[in-house]
Amino acid sequence: MVKLAGLGKAAAASILISGIVFGTAARAQEISEAHIAAARQAITSLGVTDRFDDILPGLAERLKAELIQASPNVQDAITETVDAKALELAPRRADLEREAALTYARAFTVEELNAISTFYSSEAGKKLLKDGPIATRELMKAADIWAAGINRDLNASSMSELQKVAGADLKPLPADQNATGGAPVAPKP
């Protein structure tokens, strides 16, 4: 019986702790309208949901193409009906905007969201959004070239120095591993 009483206390403690944790989590999920407004402004400045603008039209076009392929004799009715139904669903885009705002509101404070909005609404922020991906791509190319040169020089200088120490016992790396630091190189087409 003593063991059961101990289990009861452990279960009660577990329930109490769970209630505190989940109660705190539920309160943390309560986000003010001001916080959501700041998140919406940041999202607008970043343009993060712009890429979702084509979802409904794309789905409608795909559905029309599938239906027309299956029933080409009613193409006009299909086009008119699917377009009308897509327009009826268009207001639901606001649901996605609200989810995006909630996601950003959970991730950032109001102050952080305001700072994000301020920066990305500035000319520098707009330029970063526009040209940042190009700069990143060019940087990755430069890093690849740099790494290949460093690898080549590291291999050459190490082999030269090791040749002095190990002499004939030093086996050269296969040609396909010399340039890549041991990683196999895919054959060129």
Short description:
The protein has 189 residues and is mainly alpha-helical. It has helices spanning 2-29, 33-46, 55-70, 75-89, 93-107, 110-121, 123-166, 175-178. Mean pLDDT is 83; it is low at 1-8, 10-14, 21-28 and 179-189.
Order of helices and strands: HHHHHHHH
Largest sheet geometry: none
Percent helix range: over 70%
The rounded distance between the terminal residues' Cα atoms is: 77 Å
Question: Given the helix and strand composition, which structural class is it?
Answer: mainly alpha
Report the uncertain regions.
1-8, 10-14, 21-28, 179-189
Give the averaged pLDDT, no decimals: 83
Helix count from the secondary structure assignment: 8
Residue fraction in strands: under 5%
Coarse shape = flat
Gyration radius from CA atoms, angstroms: 30 Å
Q: Would you report the number of β strands?
A: 0
